[in-house]
Amino acid sequence: MEKKEFIIGKRPQKEWGWLIILALFFTGSGAGSFFFALILGSVTRMLMGVILVLVGALFLLADLSRPLSGWRVILRPQSSWITRGALGIISFFVLSVLYMLAVSLQHGRSVSLSGAPWTTGPTWLMVLGVLSGAVALFVAAYPGFLLGSMRAIPFWNTALLPVLFMISGLLCGLGEIYLMPLQWEGQTWGLVLLNSLSVGLLILGFFLLLSLILTVHSGTTKESVRLLTSGSLRSQFVAGVIGIGVIVPLIILVLIFGGATGTSLLPIAGILLTLGMLLFRYSILKAGIYTTPV
């Protein structure tokens, strides 16, 4: 098998394993959690998002051969997406912590779901909130830019990946918010907003996933798609990502949003969203195939 792969000039990437998968999962989901906690005005949930991003950053450091020299990754912002991602995560920590402290001093631990805190208060506080949210979106989308910069793996070289990773991070963030107890009674604004965003993101993500696997160019890209749709990654991608992570949560949220069932099913939707988005990262990374042996 190894000889055949060498002759045809293709081999699956094996350098990015579970440490990177978990790093991308925690940073993306943490950024998504923070973004929606920012909208809801919950400092407690913002803190949860920051902690998750921190866990992801620790996984990134653990993957380095020399973790104590990890600070060197910030030295090439003009040419390296690894550097840009590291700077984005650092900026996220600084801005999010400053914002949480400022909101805590202004409003206490949380504010009413009738309006997000970054829409009221001093101008500097609103600007800080907007910047925090923007950096959180960048952290969620960053893995797609990083993978897209790997020219030796054609399947990753698509403009769809940053959007898919951002949507995945946001959905996972929503899933984690659904897992945390929240008194929805009397909070119609928050429930309608989150359900509307969830349904919209799931539908958009579904069609982008279809576009990703239907847009095929080179033979190497076809092989990556084959792994996802009929090969060794079929169960993780088709059943896990599309079925568990998209279709079933979409049905549950539509039922809740339509009033056919109560909010007691939200934690189930949260678990499925979180699992599906983890499998999304696993599937995309494992489907990466080099055009030439390295």
Describe this structure in words.
The chain has 294 residues and is mainly α. It has one domain: Formate dehydrogenase/DMSO reductase domain (Formate dehydrogenase/DMSO reductase fold, Up-down Bundle). Helices cover 70% and strands 1% of the residues. It has a two-stranded antiparallel sheet with strand order 1-2. The relative contact order is 0.14. The model is unreliable at 1-7 and 109-115 (pLDDT under 50).
CATH architecture: Up-down Bundle
Instruction: Provide the structure class.
Output: mainly alpha
What fraction of the residues are assigned to beta strands by DSSP? under 5%
**Total beta strands:** 2
- Count of DSSP-assigned helices: 10
**Would you tell me which CATH topology applies?**
Formate dehydrogenase/DMSO reductase fold
CATH first level = Mainly Alpha
Please specify the SSE layout and strand pairing.
Elements: H1 2-8, E1 11-12, H2 18-40, H3 43-63, H4 81-107, H5 123-148, H6 160-179, H7 188-214, H8 219-229, H9 234-257, H10 266-286, E2 289-290
Antiparallel strand pairs: 1-2
Helix pairs in contact: 2-3, 2-5, 2-6, 2-10, 3-4, 4-5, 5-6, 6-7, 6-10, 7-9, 8-9, 9-10
